[in-house]
Structures are given as structure tokens and as C-alpha cells.
Write a structure and sequence with these properties.
homodimer; about 160 residues; mainly alpha; two-stranded antiparallel ribbon; 7 helices; 2 strands; DNA-binding
DNA sequence: TATTGTTATACTCTATAACTATA
DNA sequence: TATAGTTATAGAGTATAACAATA
């Protein structure tokens, strides 16, 4: 057998495999989107209307501000978001989602929910609820930037 | 508040945060090791004595065989593993762990277990057991290469 | 003087292709 | 002819530095 003897003890191994399995399907879902998974995160934040300008957005997603420039270039070209001058600070640009972007986001979230269900299929309904709750508690306690994309970055160098 | 309203529903978000939190500490642990997290995986496989040659090792870890060459160069320079000619096939090299490598691995695994405990601290003991078990079941069902490092790669482009 | 955003450049990591030696 | 391993090279992706506009 190829799985280690201490499967249940090796939390990192299990976390990695489950997260990667989820990422595989999630990346398929956002494959056509400019910027991929990262572009999706921008749409989420823009739709939420939270951190207005590029710098705050970059920090929230845990990427460099120069990366955010290129990312927004792509998303704006696809008419999914717009850079709007901030009337209160003429250096800054507010990132707002377009109508097209909102529709695209809605469709993506529907598909992503489907992917989650697929991932949890091996578990009983009650177990799925338990797992979601336990992970959510750990997640809210964990520090650092609040986007999921950076995990991929760090997992890469495993 | 900065956390979304639908925290419990967003499995991907929670998985990403928890995995990244784990990766942060795990990468600190293996920081001094040549190849970082990936070097650790090689040590694990070499200690287990499983896939002998470089190609099998690369496939198991989900990396290109050229990457494995550079990785083993570093690990061999640090005297943690050795390339041994395979008597059965003179093209192939068997990767064996050294005594130093075994000691280093032992120390790393001890520290990694500590990091896992730290991650699970917010949960009750019974809950920790439950989470480990549920994740292990999902992990064994999930397909793909069996190393955790690739998750980091994919999470990066979120 | 500090900050937002952009651009150009350098660096890191990975994959592709070509090569040697074995099979 | 195909395979294990190495090397050189090219390609993505990211960060660093310099810049313009504004605070």
C-alpha cells in the first residue's frame, strides 16, 4: 500500500491532500476567468465593496501591489471591474464591480458550491456539517491575510 | 467585521486559511533544510525506502524529474541522502538516507508534530480526533500524487 | 516627506529540449 | 527504440527599484 501507516496522525498530509483536491476542481471552475483564482478573489472583494483602493485590496489578498496592477489590467479589459478615481484622494483608485462582473461572480459561486459538495461526498451529511464547523473555527482563529489563494503559493514549495 | 457572513458555508475559504496557517509553521520548521518542505518529503520517502530511483521519487512527489536532480544535488551536498548505483539497472540511481539524514528527519518530525498540536489548540481534544479522522477519510478518497507540497503550488495562484 | 499607482527590470522557480549512458 | 539522469535554456510568476502624481 502506498499510504503511510500513520494516516490518521498525519494532519499535514491529510490537509494537503484535501486542500489540493479542492483546488483542482476550483481552478477548473475559474479557469476562464482573467487572473484565475486570484481574479475570483478580487471579484468577491469588489462585490462586497470593502477595501476600496488597490493597495488595500492587494494587502487583503496577500499579493504585491505591482501584481495587483497587472491583475486589474486583465479584469478591467474583460469589463469585470472598473478603476474609479477616488474623490477623496486623487492618488487612489476605487475598484468597483461591473454588472457583467457581478453576473460572472454569481455563476462562479454557484459552481464552486457544487465543487464543495462533490468534495464532501464521501462523508455523511452530519459529518459534513461537523467538518465545516470545525474548520471554520480553526480558520477564524488563524491569523494572516484572509484569502485562500496564498495557501497555494506556500504549498507549492512543499 | 472582516469575515464574511457565510463563514460556515465557505469550505474553500476555511480550508485555505487552515492549510496556510499550518504551512506557515511547517515551513518555519523546515526552513534550514535544503529544498525546504520538498526536501523534507524526499527524506520521508528515502527513510521509508519505498520508490528507489529518482524518477519514481519525482512522480510520487508530483515534481518534474529535472527538479528532482537539483533537489537531490542539494540534499546530497548536505550529506542527508546519497545517490547509489542500482545494481539491477546501471542507468538508475537509488536514493538512500544517511545517518545524518535520519537524525535530521527525526528531529523535524518531532517539531512538525508540535506544530500540528499548536494548530489544533482552539479545539477540544475530542474535536481534534474528529477533525483528524474526517480529514483522513477525505484524503484517502482524493486522487492525485500523494505529497502535500503541491497543494502549496496550486494555492499560490489563488 | 510619505503614499498610490505604474512601469521596467531582475530574480526565482519550473518546464522543455537536447544530450549521455544504459537497456 | 526507449528509459534514467543530467545539463542548458526558455518560460511563467513574483518582487525590487525608479518614477509620476498627489497628499
Amino acid at each position: 500500500m502506498s499510504t503511510p501507516q500513520h494516516v490518521e496522525a498525519d494532519l499535514g498530509w491529510a490537509l494537503g491532500r484535501v486542500t489540493r483536491a479542492h483546488l483542482r476542481t476550483a481552478e477548473l471552475v475559474v479557469a476562464g476567468l482573467p487572473g484565475g483564482p486570484r481574479g475570483y478573489q478580487v471579484l468577491v472583494e469588489a462585490a462586497r465593496g470593502g477595501p476600496g483602493n488597490q493597495l488595500a485590496l492587494a494587502q487583503k489578498l496577500g499579493v504585491d501591489r505591482t501584481v495587483m496592477t497587472y491583475l486589474l489590467d486583465e479584469l478591467e479589459r474583460a469589463e469585470l471591474v472598473r478603476r474609479q478615481p477616488d474623490p477623496a484622494d486623487r492618488r487612489a483608485r476605487q475598484i468597483v464591480i461591473t454588472e457583467v462582473g457581478r453576473e460572472r461572480l454569481c455563476e462562479l459561486e454557484r459552481k464552486l458550491r457544487g465543487a464543495e459538495e462533490e468534495l464532501l461526498r464521501p462523508l455523511e451529511p452530519a459529518e459534513r456539517v461537523t467538518l465545516r464547523a470545525l474548520l471554520a473555527r480553526l480558520a477564524t482563529d488563524a491569523g494572516g491575510p484572509s484569502d485562500a489563494c496564498q495557501v497555494a503559493e506556500e504549498l507549492k514549495r512543499c
